[in-house]
TrEMBL record:
Biological-process GO terms, alphabetical: detection of stimulus involved in sensory perception
Primary localisation category: membrane
InterPro entries: Insect_Ionotropic_Sensory_Rcpt, Iontro_rcpt_C
Species in which this protein is naturally found: Coptotermes formosanus (Formosan subterranean termite)
Compartments in which it is found: Cell membrane
Signal sequence region: 1-16
A single Gene Ontology CC term: plasma membrane
Membrane-spanning segments: 379-399, 447-467, 635-656
Membrane-topology descriptor: Multi-pass membrane protein
Protein name (record): Ionotropic glutamate receptor C-terminal domain-containing protein
Domain Ionotropic glutamate receptor C-terminal: 381-642
A single MF term (Gene Ontology): ligand-gated monoatomic ion channel activity
Keywords: Cell membrane, Glycoprotein, Membrane, Receptor, Signal, Transmembrane, Transmembrane helix
Length: 676
């Protein structure tokens, strides 16, 4: 009996303590109930302490932390936004699951609480916690010690507006109100005569209709719910997230950067109503994807151009900083235009799923022609030239011996074929295809003479055919296959100035510094003495324009086997935690499933090829030799040289004949005088 009395006493005491606690801190009990209904278990819960701490506030916050810790549903992180660490903190990379931001302060002035809330948000999204900052998490903002001399909607609008600046849409502002305050605000009569405690929940749903596209005006409609019991919170509708992919015509601002193949330069169209030119973007892979996203989500596009293109030379950190500044200044939602994941990843951006694989590799000149005049001496090999010369000497000796043998047999052979000089002149004349001074008379020499004529005709035909072909097309040097071959040959790699600034001075000997990437490409194409690194998509674009082939339809640059520098994919970027990101990723996934990027790529390249009237085929059967006056220039020069030598020889022969005739005339006169 005594034990039963003690047990009853303990139970009554515990119940009284719980009732007193619930009655003493009803707002904290409501926050606990909301947390159990709203926050995902197992994920970290971050509690941000209020900036203004009083004795009552400290006890209330301690009660909340103790109750949440007792439930053992979440790992709890308590953050004091006013405390500044003097040493480096360990950066946490795991994203937070939910947030409770406790707001307190005096009622006068009104903006003090809003400014304090902004300071709390700034501490969460910067410093050592920026990697774990999760704008997509659920936020509950209890406003402690509410003010009764102005509407709570002013405070909630200011809080929700700051949350929207950080792209937070799952925010819930909680007030504790008396029944009289609720009746006055809702203009309703409550039958309860006893004073009761109510909770006022304020939130808003982004993109729910055309009036909630963004939180930038005071007239944004708020959703306000008033509940009395803790169990009514889950049925109030304040915790329900609006599903669906219809954004009700809310415009999406896209920051676009011009980039070949991905986003072509715009067309200027005159707008009569506005009295100005509007820039219309219609071509490019990114434009096609943005169009599908706009039609799928019912969001019209507002395209805002950036101040630079993807070909401008600058470091990735500088490019990322400039994009972030323009994205914030122009209040854009998405940035696109040939972005690479490695280029844009990092704070404050968050990238979409990749939709086009890209490969950056080293390209070396592969259409280098041999020098035209030096190629003439390479028509035959040295061994062949030595064999021809040896055979020519052997022919002279053979003719001389046949002639001597004929004289011994008393054959009537001309004396020209008995002199070595005359034999050399006649054999050379046959090799050049001209007539000889005297034909052989004996049968053995005639047979050998005929054999030598046939041999010279064959050699001359082959020589002239090769000579003509090399004069027209000198042929191509064998290109490099690996990076080691390129470096061992002394050829350097062209890099823009922005990339060379971060390189070690020991490696600068292997590079040629260009002002920008376009200049590197122009130098490589014009002089063909440097290699370049290039995106494969940009390489296909240059080929389709005919800019990357020579006059014989051969590619000017070829990719090295082990020259891959970076393999990445094209993405779009948003500010971290933007609510549109998951919807954009869903549309991109469906686009990839349908294989549309490959089809759009082929369509775009074919359009560029048709507009530039170039051929996009590089098989061996499609290559050709473009013969024109320029290619025949060396042949004409050689022909002119032959005519000049013939004319000089003719003049010299005339002069020689005149001199010889005068000499003979003088000799005859002298002889006649001597005879007299």
């Amino acid at each position: 009996m005594f034990l039963l009395a003690i047990f009853c006493t303990v139970c009554c005491t515990a119940q009284a303590i719980l009732q007193n606690s619930a009655h003493e801190y009803p707002l904290m009990d409501g926050i606990k109930c909301i947390s159990e209904e709203l926050f995902p278990p197992g994920h970290s819960l971050v509690i941000i302490l209020p900036l203004v701490e009083e004795h009552s506030t400290r006890e209330e916050v301690g009660y909340l932390i103790e109750e949440l810790h007792t439930s053992s549903r979440w790992p709890i992180i308590v953050v004091n936004a006013t405390y500044r660490m003097k040493r480096n903190m360990t950066i946490e990379i795991r994203k937070h699951g939910s947030y409770i931001i406790l707001v307190s302060g005096t009622c006068q002035p009104f903006t003090q609480r809003i400014a304090g809330f902004w300071e709390q948000l700034l501490g969460l999204s910067s410093g050592a916690m920026w990697q774990s900052w999760n704008p997509r998490a659920r936020f509950v903002i209890p406003v402690m010690a509410p003010c009764t001399h102005y509407e709570n909607t002013y405070v909630s609008q200011g809080i929700l507006r700051f949350l929207w600046l950080y792209k937070v849409t799952n925010g819930l502002v909680v007030f504790q109100e008396s029944s009289g305050h609720v009746n006055k605000r809702l203009q309703q009569n409550i039958s309860d005569k006893t004073p009761s405690t109510y909770f006022s929940l304020h939130t808003w749903s982004a993109y729910e209709n055309s009036q909630s596209c963004m939180f930038d005006t005071v007239d944004v409609p708020l959703k306000t719910f008033s509940v009395r019991n803790f169990s009514d919170i889950q049925y109030s509708g304040a915790l329900k997230r609006q599903p669906g992919k219809n954004f009700h015509g809310c415009p999406v601002k896209v920051l676009v950067r011009e980039c070949p193949f991905f986003l072509e330069p715009p067309h200027r169209v005159w707008n009569n109503d506005a009295g100005r030119y509007d820039f219309i973007y219609q071509k490019g892979l990114d434009i096609a994807i943005l169009t599908v996203i706009s039609e799928s989500l019912n969001m019209p596009l507002v395209l805002l151009p950036t101040g630079y293109s993807c070909s401008d030379s600058m470091r990735d950190d500088v490019r990322s900083r400039l994009l972030a500044e323009e994205l914030l200044n122009k209040e854009a939602d998405i940035v696109t235009g040939g972005l690479v994941r490695a280029e844009i990843s990092g704070y404050p951006f968050e990238v979409t799923h990749g939709y086009y694989n890209r490969r950056i590799a080293v390209y070396t000149p592969c259409a280098i022609k041999h020098p035209r005049w030096s190629r003439i001496f390479k028509i035959f090999s040295i061994e062949l030239w030595l064999s021809i010369i040896s055979f020519f000497i052997l022919v002279i000796i053979t003719v001389n011996r046949i002639s001597d043998y004929g004289h011994r047999l008393h054959l009537n052979e001309h004396r020209v074929y008995g002199d070595v000089t005359s034999i050399t002149v006649n054999m050379t004349a046959i090799a050049l295809g001209v007539s000889v001074s005297t034909q052989p008379r004996t049968t053995p020499l005639r047979l050998f003479f005929l054999s030598w004529v046939c041999y010279c005709i064959g050699i001359s035909t082959v020589f002239q055919a090769y000579l003509t072909s090399f004069l027209i097309d000198t042929g191509y040097k064998e290109p490099f296959n690996t990076v080691d071959q390129m470096l061992n040959s002394g050829m350097k790699l062209g890099v823009p100035t922005a990339l060379a600034e971060n390189m070690d001075t020991d490696y600068l000997n292997f590079f040629v510094i260009c002002p920008n990437q376009d200049t590197c490409i122009d130098w490589a194409r014009e002089y063909q003495n440097i290699s370049i690194y290039l995106d494969d998509s940009f390489n296909d674009f240059l080929k389709s324009r005919g800019y990357w082939t020579d006059e014989n339809n051969r590619p000017l640059f070829c990719e090295l086997e082990n020259g891959i520098i970076l393999v990445s994919d094209s993405v779009m970027a948003t500010l971290k935690g933007h609510p549109l990101l998951e919807y954009i990723n869903d549309v991109i996934d469906h686009i990839l499933e349908a294989g549309l990027p490959v089809k759009w790529k082929n369509w775009g390249l074919n359009h560029v090829k048709r507009s530039s009237n170039t051929s996009f085929s590089y098989t061996l059967g499609d290559t050709y030799v473009n013969i024109n006056v320029t290619h025949l220039q060396s042949a004409f020069y050689m022909l002119l040289l032959g005519y000049t030598l013939a004319f000089l020889s003719f003049i010299l022969e005339i002069i020689w004949c005149n001199l010889m005739s005068k000499t003979r005339y003088l000799t005859q006169i002298c002889a006649s005088h001597d005879a007299i």
